[in-house]
Design goal:
Length: 302
């Protein structure tokens, strides 16, 4: 149902009253002129002044600042009024839309308070059965890294995985990069590279992983005797300060020492099983075992 008067926004005289909402709005631009939820509704559209605003104009827009760069999104080959767009105009607005979407993605990733990142961290820590302390610390590390720009250019899954791994290392939780990457369904090297960038950008670098933490976890999983655990602890104290160990994988070192100690005490642990538990390949385990045997001064058993 159309009514008289002109719209103060676009000057159109096509104003319509909605019988369900009991409000009068402009057909052209969507400005709501009168309605039950407006304070002091206008009795007559002719009394509308130029400086008076309505409840809203056109389609609703997000309060996010990134959404305000382009007021509307054009789809297809026609505008909001059904008029066909020229090819150059359509190309121009498609380019603007692409730029807006790119800035939205960048803005979401660069926000210290990222709801999507918090959701990923909560899901992965729950899947790995990590305590709440690790989840909170991972969120704190992620915020600090994003604010410092240490993770610029990295994907969100890799960034959150690196934050979780950093939190695990800080509180001596024996979880490897491979386990975290598998829980997030991404490649191990993605998390590893993101962690290196994160560690360089933090004010206080993440401490190295405690080798004894991996020892307790692997020994429990393999059901090793206390004698094997004691022997491995002695080997760790003997080799931990050696510069040759600093370049080796921490869980690879522990796996190699457990393999040596188990062989020494006559407990059967296959190389394949030890490699699986230690999250290393059999080739890596074999190479690390040779290095550790040389450092502990024990010839390899035949």
């Amino acid at each position: 149902m159309e009514t008289g008067g002109k719209c103060p926004n676009c000057g159109s005289s096509r104003c319509e009253k909605d019988p369900r909402l009991l409000e009068i709005h402009c057909v052209e631009c969507g400005l709501v002129l009168t309605g039950p939820d407006l304070v002091n509704p206008l009795p007559n559209l002719s009394d509308v002044k130029e400086d008076r605003g309505g409840r809203g104009v056109g389609p609703l827009t997000s309060p996010s600042p990134y959404r305000k760069m382009l007021g509307t999104t054009l789809r297809g080959v026609k505008d909001a009024q059904g008029h066909r767009l020229a090819q150059d105009v359509m190309s121009h607005y498609n380019h603007l839309g692409w730029m807006m979407r790119r800035e939205i993605v960048r803005g979401k990733l660069c926000q210290p308070e990222n709801p999507e990142a918090r959701e990923i961290i909560a899901r992965v820590t729950s899947k790995l059965e990590l305590p709440t302390l690790i989840r909170d610390e991972a969120e704190s590390i992620f915020r600090e890294a994003i604010s410092s720009g240490a993770l610029r250019g990295r994907g969100l899954p890799a960034c959150t995985g690196a934050a979780i791994y950093a939190a695990c290392r800080k509180y001596n939780q024996p979880h490897t990069l491979s386990e975290i990457a598998a829980a997030m369904s991404i490649k191990r090297w993605e998390v590893g590279r993101a962690f290196k960038s994160l560690n360089r950008g933090l004010n206080k670098p993440v401490p190295p992983a405690g080798l004894k933490t991996y020892l307790y976890r692997y020994a429990e999983e393999l059901a090793l005797s206390p004698a094997v655990r004691s022997t491995v602890e002695e080997m760790l104290e003997k080799t931990s300060s050696d510069p040759e160990v600093s370049g080796l994988s921490p869980h690879g070192v522990v796996a190699a020492l457990i393999y040596i100690a188990a062989e020494q005490h006559g407990e059967k642990v296959s190389r394949g099983e030890m490699a699986r538990v230690g999250s290393v390949t059999e080739m890596t385990l074999r190479t690390t075992t040779k290095v550790m045997e040389r450092l502990v001064g024990r010839p390899r058993a035949q």
